[in-house]
Specification:
seven-stranded mixed sheet, 36% helix, alpha/beta, 12 strands, 425 residues, globular
Length: 425
């Protein structure tokens, strides 16, 4: 029988979210969109077995639901084929001929995934709880990430067979009971969840990213505990972590992050060198919008005055706080979540001709050409290509947040390339 109406993942997921699943209370916690898209993305791979039973149950019930409610003639196989086309028709589909598998935890909008796919990797599981970030991730990779990784109902869908675990986990202090700090001391933190997955799944390697401040967090005890858990409790070779700056890998952003790498002992890897700077000359003009941005990105006179007064007050106290304007030949400060991430990265752009306010502002649009960077410029600062898309339903505020939370793709990719090289040896 022919399908009378095309099915999209969005329509499909909206329907299944209304459906009940009496067979198992676990579905209360499972993101059904993640379950279906993970199954379809891995349908020709052994990893699909981890999603197959539950995913096909959802699809079968959905087909029955449509037949009953909408009087449509639709077969389960036909539904699968249509949904499969929908998840594959994205800017960055999984590579057909991959050479390693990885999972993507605290995935954000997929910076780790983009870097690993560029190196020939296939993602077999991803997790991210932020709903707006999930939308962006799905639009680019065809998968909705699973939600809360602390839930057993989420972790039960992590496949056993993958090579590398990737995670940009948040920095949290530990309540250390012992002198050195061990696995149990990290319980209740998100690092514990990562460590538990490493312990249970035993990937060949892991790649963890965190803020530079982790090195000195809680007097250095946080990092010390992390390394002790990874080296002693989990028995991985973990070289000394290193601070890596995004500006050394081709993007004009001064963004320092700590990278923690580990290898399972039986891989034979017992030494590792982090990538060195590419010594590329980078500047903001490399990522600047080619056309004049919308007027909404230009500061109002009142907002600009507030920033100037705020900076003057701090300078009077001997502090260096306040807004900063990046020249076209300069390098951006680290883009971070919150207003300061934008205020520390203002730019001059005198190409504006339309000074009519597009939003409700106090004062008028400034005549000095001072504006915020656009989300696309932030995306370029993080190494995302221009065909990386943000759905229309994701507002600028959410886009800035997603990019500020992301990893810098080129730095991740340069490091991951050496991880793969070490494993190959």
């Amino acid at each position: 029988m022919k399908v009378k109406k095309k099915i999209s993942i969005e329509e499909f997921s909206n329907k299944i979210l209304k459906m009940g699943f009496a067979e198992s209370n676990e579905y209360i916690y499972i993101n059904k969109k993640a379950l279906i898209t993970h199954y379809l993305q891995n349908i020709n791979d052994k990893a699909s077995k981890h999603f197959k039973k539950e995913a096909e149950k959802v699809i079968k019930e959905y087909v029955q639901y449509r037949n009953k409610e909408e009087n449509l003639s639709i077969l389960q196989d036909e539904a699968l084929q249509q949904l499969l086309i929908d998840v594959k028709d994205v800017p960055f589909p999984s590579p057909k001929n991959y050479n390693f598998k990885f999972i993507d935890l605290f995935a954000g909008i997929g910076g780790f995934r983009l870097a690993m796919q560029n190196l020939g990797g296939k993602c077999v599981f991803t997790s991210e709880w932020d709903k707006e970030a999930q939308k962006t991730y799905r639009a680019n990779f065809g998968e909705f990430p699973f939600g809360d990784i602390t839930k057993k109902e989420t972790k039960m869908f992590i496949p056993n067979e993958f090579d590398i675990l990737c995670a940009g986990f948040p920095c949290q202090a530990f309540s250390i009971a012992g002198k050195r700090g061990g696995f149990e001391d990290t319980r209740g933190t998100l690092f514990f969840e990562v460590a538990e997955i490493i312990k249970n799944k035993k990937p060949k390697a892991f790649f963890l990213e965190n803020v530079k401040g982790l090195r000195n967090h809680n007097g250095g005890r946080t990092l010390s505990t992390i390394l002790n858990v990874l080296r002693t409790d989990l028995n991985y070779f973990v070289p000394e972590p290193e601070i890596i700056n995004a500006k050394d890998f081709g993007v004009p952003q001064n963004r320092e992050r700590i990278f923690i790498i580990g290898f399972r002992k039986d891989t034979g890897v017992n030494e590792f060198e982090f990538p060195r700077s590419l010594k590329m000359k980078v500047k903001f003009s490399d990522v600047k919008e080619k056309k004049v941005p919308e007027t909404k990105y230009y500061l109002s006179t009142q907002y600009l005055k507030t920033l100037i007064d705020h900076k003057a007050r701090h300078q009077g106290k001997g502090n260096g706080f306040g807004f900063e304007i990046i020249s076209d030949n300069g390098i951006a400060n680290a883009i971070v979540v919150g207003g300061m991430g934008r205020e520390r990265n203002l730019v001059y752009d005198h190409r504006i001709t339309d000074f009519t306010p597009k939003t409700h502002i106090k004062g008028s649009v400034n005549r000095e050409g001072i504006r915020k960077m656009t989300p696309r410029e932030w995306a370029r600062l993080q190494g995302f290509p221009d065909d990386f898309i943000f759905p229309d339903s994701v507002a600028d505020t959410a886009r800035y947040k997603q990019l500020g939370n992301s990893v810098a793709v080129p730095a991740i990719q340069a490091t991951a390339r050496l991880i793969l090289k070490a494993l190959k040896k």
